[in-house]
Amino acid sequence: MIRVLAEDVMVQPVVTCLDMEGVLFPEIWLGLAEKVGLDELRLTTRDISDYDVLMKKRLQVLKTHGISIRDIQEVVQGIAPLPGVPEFVDWLRNRCQVIILSDTFYEFVRPLMKQLGFPTIFCHSLEIDSKGFIANYCLRQKDQKRHAVLALKNIGFRVLAGGDSYNDVSMLKEADAGFFFCPPESIAKEYPQFPISRNYTEFQEYLARAGGFES
Q: Which domain holds residue 121?
């Protein structure tokens, strides 16, 4: 969305980068943990700051208990956006470009994106073996959220960002304006520089002020 002043000076266009799980949708791994009854899968990026450590733990649990990609896909099929998300996303997409930056995986995220009209999402990929089990995970890029924000800034965008977990912090730091959405108290206390919104009305107000568009 490009706005032009009377003097024909172009105002910097805005793009908002949002985390997915915890901000737009419930956590997929928590849903899987409930389905299979394994507390080991309840750990998320809210609990462990090192994503590689977290994913290795997850893959070991999946291997030990014979949990396949189909099991995860079945969980994803039953996940709906958090209450208020469709309206929030519609509001935001009417005011600026929106990109979802997530550490989830393309192999099971499509049903979630369909519910929001297929917004752009940058995430990672999985290696699936011939029997349908996850053999490994492949990062599209290490610290991909921060790099995506930096790239958008380098091509002339003002970047706003919103997240809730440890793996969002570098993205929030790199953005022109970064916000927490319903983070755990422990993370909020660790990074007090980021304003906190507890609902989508507050989130809209923060984004509108930072982006220079109407609330």
A: 14-211
